[in-house]
Amino acid sequence: MPKLPEVESARAVVEATALGRRIADVDDSDTWECRPHAPGEIGEALVGRRLTAARRRGKSMWCDTSGTGRSATPGPALGLHLGMSGRILVTDADGRLTEGGDYLGRGVAGAGRQADRNPVWVRFALVFEDGGTLRLFDKRRLGRVRLDPEVDALGPDVLDVRVGEFRELVGRGRAPVKARLLDQSVLAGVGNLLADETLWQAGIDPRRRVDELDDDDLSRLHRALRRATRAAIARGGVHTGEVVPHRGRGGHCPRCGAEMACATVGGRTTWWCPVEQV
DNA sequence: AACAATGTTCAGTC
DNA sequence: GGACTGAACATTGT
Predict the structure, then answer these.
(1) In the complex, which nucleotide's C1' lies nearest to the CA atom of residue A196?
(2) First to last CA, chain A
(3) % residues pLDDT > 70 (chain A)
(4) Which of A26, A122, A145, A181 places its Cα 20 to 30 Å from the Cα of A255?
(5) What's A158-272's CATH class?
(6) Is the pLDDT of residue A98 over 90?
């Protein structure tokens, strides 16, 4: 379930395994995943080019592309949004995974490592001249592939904002604090689970309006967000959080044992500890 | 078998 | 008119 940490892992894999390989063919036939492009449009723009960089901002990821043999002018960027269930696999000429080619990265034996590789879930693919591939598996089909994605509308990446800027961005307005954390135009990269984990660690009720938070609240929130994000990246996913596994009916706060509360906040299912989060 | 879940987008409301 | 809310979207697991 890709959130920022998974996207960062995928980006690192693409950077390590897919750059510099000449694109010989493109499967962009899935018109939903590749909307609003027509079939063949992405292929036409990319064949003959190479990926030159893999970038990420929040949960958005994209690759820069090189010129072709004829022209040195760089090609369009290739946006690869993983949505909710997207995974990227890179293979070599023999069809084997290139070293590190699983988005989970090294050393993480996540559940579904094999399960999510059903061929029918390949929604987009690059075929390299050397016979290898870069494939986007996306079970739930909420991902998106597009040329020159709009990334300017996104706020700064979670890990790039320091306390001062964080207070300024998050403290503005009067939305519930969780809704603000989820707003990608304010801060890029926080998903539903990471928001819950962060608020639990900071001891803040997700329904609190941001204009009711003081500097100390915002500082704690900032620290908790950085900590939760880095931990999730290091461990290979948001699901490794401290409180995330206790979301769900009958769950209890892993610190105080109180029964977790549940409501819709910011349009998303939200779980929190009604005792410690105030 | 109906429904919850997930992130983004878009239409709508205040 | 900016800030905010809620539903739609596709698909699958429960």
Answers:
(1) B6
(2) 29
(3) 90
(4) A181
(5) mainly alpha
(6) no
**Nearest in space to A126 (alpha carbons), one of A39, A31, A47:** A47
CB A74 within 8 Å of CB A85: no
Is the torsion defined by CA of A121, A105, A42, A184 positive or negative? positive
For chain A, give the mean pLDDT: 86
pLDDT for A262 beyond 80: yes
Q: Which nucleotides of B are covered by protein (CB under 7 A)?
A: 4-9
Nucleotide nearest to A238 (CA to C1'): B6
CATH topology of domain A4-147: N-terminal domain of MutM-like DNA repair proteins (3.20.190)
Q: Which residue's CA lies closest to nucleotide B7 at its C1' atom? A: A83
pTM: 0.84
